[in-house]
Amino acid sequence: MQNIELNNGMFIPPICYGTCAIGQWQQDDDYVVETILTAIKAGYRHFDTASLYGNERSLGKAIKASGIAREEFFIVTKLWDTQQGFQQTLQACEESLVRLQMDYVDLYLIHWPVPQKTQATWQAMEQLHEQGKIRALGLSNFRESDITQLLSFANIKPVYNQLELHPYLTQEALCQFCNEQDIIVSCWSPLGTGTWNEVPVNEKPIADPTIVALAKKYNVSAGQIILKWDIQQGRIVMPKAESEINMRNNLALDHFELDEQELASINRLNKNHRYGGDPDTTYADNMAIDVPA
Q1: Does residue 174 sit within a domain?
Q2: Does 293 fall in a domain?
């Protein structure tokens, strides 16, 4: 599967291993390390974490224990809402690098938009980029208005915007805007299946009759159909899996192709339904959550 070229000339693998809540929320121990090592052995080289996830240390330990050169990996981490601002961002990035045991991250994201702090935060990220501590700058959960604001002062353009995106929340207008700005869209919770959302599996996209029928047609899992739907439209996906078989299945997408009508049939499943937070309303809740030490 071909890597995707970012607007700064870097290349990124289209399938990422998402590390949020491996085991339990903010778990950071040998189980997390071993799970990530299993993902590395399965073939993953693109890993996504965040200061809030509390498992940067485990990811760093796994990368070192793998015996594979750091340069072979694409590592993403994120700046939490309470860490935004100029000096706070500089400090937060340094703390993430210490936990990861790395000199740099490939991509550093603002986890959620805090518009009154975006300019100072972005200026700090640009400084970190100049120092070689961040190779690329990006966004997460940014709306069109947030991106427009940022582009009005940014000296370095964001390469990427990570969104909750799955067949029940396709965010087509925002995806189109990002594409027009040459900003790659990445999908968190791409299957809409996170156990954290307490929604019965039979109410999630993987159980939708359209998805199930396509899975039967191509003799693949419902999850593979959804991931292929994203990748064929130029998006990055970051499914989380803790079993080796699911890890490998999430990577095994090259042997089938959805046609245009099938892609459109999945697009039509949109319900504008969020399982996670809404950037319009989540600020107060986010500010009440602290990054673990």
Answers
A1: yes
A2: no
In a domain, 118, yes or no: yes
Q: Which pairs from 114-121 meet CB under 8 Å and 24+ separation?
A: 114/81, 114/84, 114/283, 115/145, 115/146, 115/149, 117/84, 117/85, 118/84, 118/146, 118/149, 118/150, 119/150, 119/153, 120/84, 120/85, 120/86, 120/89, 121/79, 121/84, 121/85, 121/86, 121/89
- pLDDT tens figures, 241-284: 999 999 999 999 999 999 999 999 999 999 999 999 999 999 99
**How many domains does the structure of the chain reveal?**
1
**Averaged pLDDT for residues 99-121:** 98
With beta carbons less than 8 A apart as the criterion, state whether 20 and 240 touch.
yes
Q: Where in the sequence numbering do the catalytic residues fall?
A: 53
- Beta pairing class for 46-48 and 74-79: parallel
Q: What residues make up the domain containing 72?
A: 12-274
